[in-house]
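Today's session is about reading a structure prediction critically. Students often jump straight to the picture, but the first step is always the sequence itself: look for stretches that repeat, for charged clusters, for runs of hydrophobic residues. Only then move on to the predicted structure, which in these notes is written as discrete structure tokens rather than atom positions. Here is the chain we will use throughout the hour.
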Amino acid sequence: MMLEVVEIEINYGGINAVRGVSLGVEKGEIVTLVGANGAGKSSILHGIAGAEKLAGGTVSFEGKDITGNRAHNTAALGVSLVPEGRRIFGRMSVRENLEVGGCLKNPVAIKKGMEKAMSLFPVLKERARQEAGTLSGGEQQMLAIARGLMNEPKLLLLDEPSLGLSPLMEQAVFKVIAEIRRSGTTVLLVEQNANLALKISDRAYVVENGRIVLSGISGELLNDENIKKAYLGG
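Below is the predicted structure for this chain, in token form.
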């Protein structure tokens, strides 16, 4: 396993938001976490990335125990988190946002990452000097993903990449996610649009009330009647 999560717990005050979650991601996979809003999916990603403190359990990346690592230390190992809501720097240019994403790299690597990002997202090349806050919602999401790739991650954690996007832009973003995997980056995806997420991923975990209640091959879950009723509107 590239990533192995064992019985992690995350608390917010007196609330047990993540309760004994275990999951794994193999190198080269797209794995998705699906579930209702508030189920604990984003908290799981943040716990893996070191952005939330674990109350219990362990996280291993490439065989190394990274439990309790601070976020920047986890990022330095090759794990990038693209958070929900984009969180770009609106008053900075597109180029400056990308440079921030590559802050752990040397100038040569930053230049290489910039070229790769702008090849993957041609619209960002066109708008390189434009203030990021003036981009459309879809363009901002592309910038957030591109910024996450600037660190040349081995594992990309994507939190709700389709949130607030039009159906057409959702499709564009998910095509890019597939391309990111083809380029050699492993992806762990949190997504409320279960239909799109299950179509693009290899395996999936279903999260309810902070627990994993079901897991399996994405194609099989896509055709599961209970999953259809609960998450696919069928």
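Discussion point for the tutorial: The radius of gyration is 17 Å.
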